[in-house]
Fold each of these.
Amino acid sequence: MLTIPVYFTSPIVISVSILTAIGVYVLFGPEPQDRRKRGHPGGLVNYGNNCFANAIVQCLASSSIFIHWLEQYLHKNRVAQILLDLIHSINDKSGSYSQESTVATLIDHMRQPRWLSPFEQQDSHEFLLSLINVLTYKQSVQTKQHGFAACLDSDEQDETKSLLITESPLITPHPFQGLQATQLQCIECKHKNPISVSLFETLSLVIPDRQISNASPFTTRQQRNFTLQELIGNYLKSEMITSLTCSQCKSKSNLPHRKITTFSRLPEILCLHIIRTTWTNEGWPTKNTSHISFPDLLDMNPFISLSRLLPANIPPTQTIKKPSNALYRLNSVLVHLGGISEAGHFIIYRRRIDNHGWLSISDDSIRECSDLQVFASMAYILFYERIKK
């Protein structure tokens, strides 16, 4: 009997090949536009443990202020070009996206090879700071700014010309950049030293300890909750510095000084990082799961107390006018699920593209969610945008 060899390809092999080809196309880029629901952005596929970067890119994609800054000022920056192309693809602002505009390419151009490990989780906050640093690396630095008014919001400049300041590390402002002012005051003679100004791009807020004695487990859980305003107030809380020599009380040494901190210029995008990693007595890291309630609209006016920094010889009636636009609106929330920040998974909540409701985004999984789900989440990073006048 004549046997004719027949060569054929298994349907399973064909299916796997097709799926592989499709996977290569979408693996490093946003979700194809024809899959998206109206008002939904595109997702980003997790090709290992890159959810830490996916979450930050999605948060930035939800910020019109950040996108405008990229478009207007960083068109020659290669990392900015990749990021902007990726953001436009996520938000469906262009018909197609470049094959080079992927999260993997973004990380590669940031020169952070350790973040490309497919088996190592990284921290979203660390990634955000590194990304900002790369985007602003070549910006010029201005030093020796004489006058505190040069470091303030425009509404305050005319009324603070009498205040002196040490060298100010002013950089061409970007949306995340703010300035905080600190001053040391002698407890003995009330003399106030010159004001020093420092930059900040995110505010890292510590969850304070709150010990409750003779409380049931239920009340203990209730007492472990805090408000975002409490954490910001705690950040600005005066602290005592010991063993300093007062320039006014020259005959006395080792005098305690009070360190006063306030904000002198607020950023356009207020990024609040809630530190959740704590350490046990044995030196093991653990996660603080206290709930931090946060508002949709955040008024920062109560935290701008520039009158605290006035020299003692200025009458109290000469107060400093607060900026009138220190009101912020919540734009996105980044949440860490699981154990400490070196493990687990990062997701975000962001507003829909049409601003009608919220979305829960976990890499390429996107679904609508309620306001209650957003504001009940265990926030790790909060992104607020300043409301324009």
Amino acid sequence: MFQVLSKLTGSNNHHLLEYTGGGTEVSKRFFQSIPPKDVNGNWIVKFMCWQQHEWPDLGVHQFTHRRNETIDAHCQVGDEECIQKQMKAGAGIELPTRRLLKELKVLNDMEQRTDRLLADMKVPTIHISYEKLFLVGNDTSEWARVFDFLGVGPSKEELTVDAIKKAGHAATSVPFHNTTLSNYAEVREVLLGTEFERLLH
């Protein structure tokens, strides 16, 4: 996603650390570093500008993922060797189910608390859907919402599916859990009838 935003609003990104995806403690330290009286969202502008001044030619920075020792986090369009490695690595994964529900509840609670914190601090926020960005064919309306929110990039009328595909990384994930998970039936059994049943696809 950030690769597309970066290319369509300025230029390609350079490496940056991911905030705040380093874990619960890292996230706590990050948010605790926010000035307590800064409730109007200026802190995030200052934080972004702190990195932006080093790369003035960039429109939007991508928060990059840590790389696996043997497999790149993303593949460029046309890099078939990389794509095949990703597809192979992303199939037949066994997802432990013993604590699955508990872990999903923890993650969901973290997301809800983050949403409340952003709202309390009046940080401008937009909620978007990965599925609507990448799995809806020729519909670019979700991307248009993002660019409109940012106030940069192509307009809804200018935005095309072809431009998005050229700007992004190659697709390397299979959208069906019965392919990505070797124990899909077991996972499905655990999630059926819970609030997380909607995650199955």
Amino acid sequence: MAKSPPGLDSQTVAAAAMLKRAVDLDSESRYQQALVCYQEGIDLLLQVLKGTKDDTKKCNLRKKISGYMDRAENIKKYLEEVKEDGKYHKQIKIEENATGFSYESLFQEYLNETITEVWIEDPYIRHTHQGIGKEQQTSGLKEIKMSLMNHGVLLELEYSSSLHDREIRFNNGWIIKIGRGLDYFKRPQSRFSLGYCDFDLRPCYETTVDIFHDKHTRKI
């Protein structure tokens, strides 16, 4: 079991690691991810500050927190500007057999409390490992619809014989295009293999994910 360096508690170590990750992402111009890490790191440092009694250490922590907050605020303003200008574009390349690209990992940073609608266009959702078998598609979708309704979520379905594009839209303006659509996971070897339930552990097919922001999200 890993131990914290002498003189440092685990929360301080976690904050330092998170903020180092933020700085690294920032230097690579991966601003959206950097902002998330800055925010998490700042929260951890604030917890450390609350538990610190030494005045000198408190002063140093406040300076660090102030500096990171200023940088996070600048990044936030920059991202808002590029979104307003319609210039935001992030591309993620998923290599063959790569792991760590679950739906949650890809979409989480673009989901927030303002979202009330999601539109998914995908012409090839049919395999069992995608969640729905071809023969059971109708009954499976009905079950999903009823289950979602119990949680206050309305699922509306439309079918098209000419649809070929793959696109996911959130009504907070984010648009996600995946080259292979939602079918970028490889079939698990068995029900007992790693990745059967945890999609972060499931190998992927090679594909590209493009993420945009459009403040004029279409209405359906």
Amino acid sequence: MRKDTAAPADDATQTPVAHTWEILLRLLPMTLSVAAMVIMLKDSQTSDYGSLSYSDVGAFRYLVHASGVCAGYSLLSAVAAAVPRPSSLSTAWTFFILDQLLTYVVLAAGAISTELMYLAYNGDASITWSKACGSFGDFCRKATAATTITFVVTLCYAGLSLISSYRLFSKYDAPVACSNKEIDFSTFQS
């Protein structure tokens, strides 16, 4: 059962300090995502074996795009959270869904980049994939830094997801125990 959606219980008890911390937690992934994006955008190296840039690798292009989307969403959600207005159920659902979505988008970007970095550092002899980081060490170090920052962004979004899910699901009453113990099963004739 839904409680009154005009004035949720958690908005009345939220202190200004908690509200400030939430806004800062929404801004932190923006700065980290921009940092990861800038590191990756400037990541290119030329060696005796050729040149390598982030744009040559699909996983790194996805990381740059995901970081850009996360930075934009973080800024917009921080502004939306900072504007004083009564919370509604639709606002709580919007924050919940978008926080969850961005958590998985940035987690996927980090996971894909980590897999690629593993192959770049270790290679794969079964498919004759050599270790690329021996020839492109600077490129690999910058890509590792961007991937690490991406996982910190994932932790920030996981925290935001917990906050938004608490806000949303605290608007519902606990389930009521059913006193009817009979269960009607339909039988099908064969």
